[in-house]
Amino acid sequence: MEFQDEIERDDSEDLNTPAPEPVEKRSRPAESSASSKDIDEESGQITPSDTRNWYVIHCYSGYENKVRHNLEQRIETMDMKEMIFDVVIPTQEEIEVKDGKRRTVERHVFPGYVLVNMILTEESWYVVRNTPGVTGFVGMGNQPTALRPEEVSQILRRMEAEAPHIKVSFKIGERVRIVDGPFNDFRGSVSEIDQNRNKVRVMVNFFGRETPVELDFLQVEKA
Questions:
Q1: pTM score, whole prediction
Q2: By residue range, what is the domain housing residue 111?
């Protein structure tokens, strides 16, 4: 199952439900690894892997940073650095324009999901799955599914994009005000939005007639 398919399937779930106070279901066993009984009780038998892969864990939307912090602490205190290597929240820079002011924010690309680079064993599964805030692994049935290399590359490309994504607050047909350029302070209606080029076409009343003007997203705001 592809990661994108899983996201679409989970869209119907209420990810905004307030997260309960995270509590471990059981104490950590005294031995160094989780027992087979522990795995069977939680999700059935898993198939270990002897190579490192990227896996996706699910959590409540808005709790991604907390989950990453909790997991990184567990990796440190449970001495799992040689089994669990990286915990990543896919983010992308986004420019918001509000009240004539621009600000850059980090937006979560996949709200409710965190990526973990790890070697899958019963012990590493146990450490991740029982991290406070984690609700489960993405996978087919009881087996966590590793992301394909092309899926990982696509996510990393989105995170490393040079130009920040611009969030627009206007729609086609709405009135906007031009805030920059030769038509500064002119008002008009949006006739076309080009997301790929970050351009918007605005119909401006110029010398008594409607004239189309092409502008950057950052040159206009809702009137």
A1: 0.62
A2: 3-159
